Amino acid sequence: MSASQLTLKIKGLRDSLLVTLPEGRWEELRGLLLNQIQEREAFFKGARLALDVGPQALHVSEVSELRDALSEQGVALWAVLSDSPSTEKTAQLLGLATRLARPTPEVPRAPAETVEADKALWVDKTLRSGMRVEYPGHIVVLGDVNPGAEVVAGGSVIVWGRLRGVVHAGAEGDKAATVCALDLSPQQLRIAGEIALAPKQRKTPVPEIVRLQDGQLVAEPWHPDKH
Amino acid sequence: MSTVLTIGSGKGGVGKTTAVANLAVALAAGGEKVVCIDGDIGLRNLDVIMGLENRIVYDLVDVVEGRCRLRQAMIRDKHLPELYLIPAAQTRDKSAVSPSDMVRLCDELRGEYDWILIDSPAGIERGFKNAIAPADRVVVVTNPEVSAVRDADRVIGILEAEEKGTPSLVINRLNPAMVKRHDMLSADDVVDLLAVKVIGIVPEDDDVIVAANRGTPVALDPKSRAGQAFRNIAQRLKGANVPFLDLDDQGNLWQRLFAGRK
After folding, report:
1. Which of A85, A97, A190, B155 has its CB 3.0 to 4.6 Å from that of A168, i.e. a possible disulfide?
2. How far apart are CA B84 and CA B60, in angstroms?
3. A-B C-beta contacts closer than 8 Å
């Protein structure tokens, strides 16, 4: 496939541009995008750009390099949309949005229709301040969730570590969702529509599980025989 | 082999510029060839702390925009002949330089100098991106305060996401007496949250302010404890295994005797 056959779809959103990449090799697509922006400098200058990369699996260095290249052209990349979970994760690590509008659940993209309740996102690192991980299914974090980090799951959240940031399970309304952590001291914890603020910190933390019972968030220590 | 070392923090006022000046002086005093680059375009002060303010003719932006050669913008230190400063422009802003400009600039300096130290501005925007782009290693400076630690955590997260590796940590302005009274986070509290390797703990020391106002970094003062801490960090940067200062030994004899019995 030659580069000339590839075309970009550009759509104006309320306050930014949505560029949809065709399928192809990343280097070619990247070149195509940057060329277009250079050719139509007046149009793109100062724009906020959301990029739909389709199924393309992108590495952190590829996305951050593109973001820097775009910023040198005066274009701010704010979102990367993708069907690939690894690209989504990459974008989230770099602090980019992965959906166009956060509160609207009816995003016109395939995965939203089938609720991936049985799927889980595996995060094998500590989430530091400012990181946000969002996934329609469950989220498992192998590491800590530090103050200032956010975990938002359609299903349940398990933190194999210290949970000290903000966590929202059942974000799309699933009241059966739970949150468990080895050390549960979140800044704020939400399940479906209920919110609880940080409980007082204990000296010796025990693993705990939080669930929604009769409209109240209830935390109890983890007992292997009870669950 | 030269190392490009960027010093950042996220939060302002924690002592990045002080750390750059002192590490530069300590490294250069140990015989290393050092260049410091002030990355804080528009709010420069590394030149002031190093006492080189009135020697500035050309700056970083002049180099990047081709108004002078790199050599012409390098100011030789007053005390140490192998220490140079490339000052920031004061009348421009961060967007005058791009990350690739910084990479090019450092590549030009590599080989000739052992250490290229970059003083990152506060924040996580363009200026910070510029400062970390060429970095081989990053040192994050924080204070034992909740807000400074939160920002350090954010910066460490960004560095990891950008695949700059896990940085090392300097805990600056620790006051051992306050820690003892549980009025300040201890070094252990900070490390517990940030989970990175500590390369230095610098005690709070009035001499730092006096030295900065004089333009003679405290690392040049053999009697200063903060200066000693910075000299130790410089040793550790070079790979030496230097024990950490015992920050408690300034208490009087009785305090020491009682502390020992606990």
Report:
1. A190
2. 13
3. 50
Least confident range from A34-38, B57-61, B154-158: namely: A34-38
What ipTM does the predicted assembly reach? Answer: 0.78
Token pair for B205:
């020391």
Return d(Cα A128, Cα B158) in angstroms, integer: 9
Radius of gyration of chain B (CA): 18
Measured between beta carbons, which residues in chain A are less than 8 angstroms from residue B160?
Answer: 125, 128
B chain contacts of residue A93, beta-carbon cutoff 8 Å: 161
pLDDT-derived band at A74, boundaries 50, 70, 90: confident
Q: Does the beta carbon of B55 lie under 8 angstroms from any beta carbon of chain A?
A: no
B70 close to A (CB below 8 A): no
Which residues, at least 6 apart from A23, have a Cβ–Cβ distance to it below 8 Å? A54, A55, A56
Interchain contact B162–A (C-beta under 8 A): yes
**Least CB–CB distance from B161: residue in A71, A93, A129:** A93
The CA distance from B155 to B136, in Å, is: 16
d(CA A213, CA A198): 18
Confidence of residue A116 (pLDDT cuts 50, 70, 90): low
How many whole angstroms separate alpha carbon B78 and alpha carbon B57? 16
pTM for the whole thing?
A: 0.76
The band of A111, judged by pLDDT with boundaries at 50, 70 and 90, is very low
β-bridge partners, A196? A189
Chain A contact present for B165, CB below 8 A:
no
Mutate to test the interface with A, among B94, B153, B155, B192 (most CBs of A within 10 A): B153
